[in-house]
Design goal:
single chain; about 190 residues; mainly alpha; Rna Polymerase Sigma Factor, Chain: A; Arc Repressor Mutant, subunit A; 2 domains; 9 helices; about 0% strand; disordered N terminus
Length: about 190
């Protein structure tokens, strides 16, 4: 069994291309390299280990089946894998409704910046966690919390609005403006 390589040495695009050619070893390599992190993303969203495992299984099926449609000109392979997993988890939550109540006493209700997952857990778009923390730190606290709830916890805009006792339109505007500010800061 090959050793896991540092991210900069692992050939995600090559593995996706090999999957498109039907090489199962490439899918196995992708699973060894990213399976645990993808499971972490799914668990963070659905808050159930068995369900998260099913979502990751489905994600790898989609990766295998959709490998020939992956275009490296439109983004990187690792980000594509994380996107597939996240969308499957969010689609499950939309179809079945959130089964976990939003608890005001939730110890995660105020997420400190230093508690953010490392850049590997968040994906390639956030490769520089230090820059991300700096940029998030420049956002007003409520806007930062909206982003963290939406993108780390998978809350809908309505759930965030309810949790913060803020109008839905305001939450949507905060998220849109905050994403624009992050893009500019990280740009």
């Amino acid at each position: 069994m090959p050793l896991s390589l540092p991210e900069s040495l692992f050939d995600y695009n090559g593995c996706i291309a090999a999957c498109a050619r039907g090489e199962r070893e490439a899918l196995e390599a992708l699973y060894r390299e990213e399976g645990a992190r993808l499971l972490g993303v799914a668990k963070r969203l659905v808050r159930d280990t068995a369900l998260a495992e099913d979502i990751v299984h489905d994600a790898f099926l989609r990766i295998w089946q959709g490998a020939s449609s992956f275009d490296p000109q439109r983004g990187n392979a690792r980000g594509w894998m994380f996107s597939i997993t996240r969308h499957l988890a969010l689609n499950f939550l939309r179809r079945h409704g959130r089964e976990v109540a939003i608890d005001e006493q939730d110890p995660r209700s105020q997420v400190p910046l230093d508690a953010l997952p490392d850049s590997e857990a968040l994906g390639p778009a956030l490769a520089d966690a230090g820059r991300l923390q700096h940029c998030l730190g420049q956002l007003p606290p409520q806007r930062r919390e909206c982003l963290l709830r939406a993108y780390l916890d998978g809350y809908s805009h309505m759930e965030i609005a309810t949790r913060l006792a803020t109008p839905l339109g305001t939450v949507k505007a905060w998220i849109k403006r905050s994403l624009a500010a992050l893009r500019e800061c990280l740009g």
